[in-house]
Amino acid sequence: MPNIVAIVGRPNVGKSTLFNRLVQKRDAITDSVAGVTRDRHYGRVDWTGREFSIIDTGGYVEGSDDVFEGEIRKQVNLAIEECNLILFVVDVEMGLTEFDKEIADLLRKTKKPVVLIANKVDNPARLAEAADFYQIGMGEPFPISSINGSGTGELLDEVVKQL
Ligand code: GDP
Ligand code: MG
Asked: Which residues belong to any copy of the EngA-type G domain (predicted)?
């Protein structure tokens, strides 16, 4: 069974930025598979000798009223089916939204392990805001900044531990 990690979350939380940082080279965003799985980007990560595949979901159009019912639900469910571990990304700049809660409800239906990630924790002052996401009921959020890389090493340690 290959190790596959899927990044899910509402638009603009920083999924693609995290994906780019974890695969460590921007040109690793390669395959856009046509059809149902369009715009799902796959990359490889090697962390201290442990290798896994990573999927960046989120090829949906923003601003559409039925964006959740349509594309997001489909993408989250596909990711759940395909992966061994889910990285559920939320955003401390925007704070907790209804959209986040809906995705959390979808993820709760799976037996697959979920790591909750509070992204955009660019400085220590934002750590307290990250803790707010505890109320989503998916454990202690992992504070990271995909922009400056803080916390991503610890996140990778956790990912390879859970795979
Ligand atoms: P996606 O829609 O979830 O894939 O989100 P993107 O990766 O496209 O990022 C959405 C916006 O958030 C972009 O403007 C990013 O530069 C910004 N962003 C992503 N990660 C961080 C972060 O750690 N800190 C801050 N301040 N901004 C971020
Ligand atoms: Mg994206």
From this structure: 3-163
> Which of the ligands is closest to the CA of residue 29?
2
Residue 154: give its domain's CATH number: 3.40.50.300
Pocket (CB within 6 angstroms of ligand 1): 9, 11-17, 58, 119-120, 122, 145-147
Q: Which of 7, 12, 103 to mutate to test the pocket of ligand 1 (most atoms within 8 A of CB)?
A: 12
**Distance from Cα 17 to the centre of ligand 2, integer Å:** 7
Task: Judge contact between 136 and 90, C-beta under 8 A.
Answer: yes
Closest CA to 113 of 158, 66, 143, 75: 158
Q: What is the pTM of this model?
A: 0.89
- The answer to whether 131 touches 141, Cβ cutoff 8 Å, is yes
Counting Cα atoms < 13 Å in the Cβ hemisphere of 159 gives 31
Number of domains in the chain: 1
Complex ipTM tops 0.95:
yes
- Host domain of residue 143: 4-162
Residue 112 C-alpha to ligand 2 middle, in angstroms?
A: 22
Tens of pLDDT along 117-156? Answer: 999 999 999 999 999 999 999 999 999 999 999 999 999 9
